[in-house]
Amino acid sequence: MSLRGHHKSANVFVETASFLVVRLGRSYLALPADGVRGVLTPEEAGHEQAVTAAGTLYQPVDLAQLLSVVADVSGLEMRTVLYSNGHSHGAIRVEQVVGLTDVDRKTVLPLPLQFQCDERRWFGGMMLYQDLLVLIVNPSWALGELAEVIPMAARETARMVAVGGSC
Amino acid sequence: MVFSIGGMRLAARTEDVWGVSPWTESIPVPSRTPFVQAMLKRDHQVMPVYDLATRLSRTVQGDPLLCLVARHADGPMAICIDAAVPSLETVDAAAIRPNISGDIDTLGSVTIGGDDVAIVALQRLGRLG
User: Fold this and answer.
1) What CATH number matches the domain at B2-124, 2.40.50.180, 3.40.190.10, 3.20.20.150, 3.40.50.2300?
2) Total number of domains in chain A
3) Model confidence at A148, in pLDDT bands (50, 70, 90)?
4) Inter-chain residue contact B44 with A128, CB threshold 8 Å
């Protein structure tokens, strides 16, 4: 469960947020660290899709498929991130765990408004980490808790089609 | 300003253009917004990329390619354009005709050097509604 680097802010009075930065394909993603329950190697995770740890069942979350990202999760650096927000629990397979970081919340940027479709639910924002552009994953969406929003999204899509555009 | 994408000449109002610089590799972003699926990082600024070449079914030409930064209504937006250096042209507003091709959102078209050139509406490029 080792991580490559933990970069802490020097100023403890600055409001910070902690993120686990991972890689899927060519995309760097950040998961809010307060939901991370563990990082497992392939040997630790086993061959089953779902993972049971400390008595909790973590259902598989195929983040690459959800994001339509081409990723190879068969490599040596592949890890399974056990993620929970208290009521939903997911086992998220990633190509690589890059590191854990604390960032000043003021440095977290919103997704540019030119991104207008589903990605606005996928990502809560973005940030720069070690010169990389990192997209902050919305955990509620990744854990499947935003299913009830889909009918509203469908209505919005229908409205967009009506005015000449479409997601 | 007259520029080209895949050899196709296009125009933009100078006030809709932030600048032109060499193109740098873009960063793919998972996205379902048509033609907005990458971002460009410049120093500490990050901006979305609009793939106008794909929108026009063209392939950008030349080396090094250039980056046109548009003053989009929602913030700066990068567009990869041909290596051919853009030129400035002054046209009479009365010479601008409505563009009926419908390929992209335009402010009309104008004849420049004998070519019919569409004036791209950079401020609202890619807006869905």
Assistant:
1) 2.40.50.180
2) 1
3) very low
4) yes
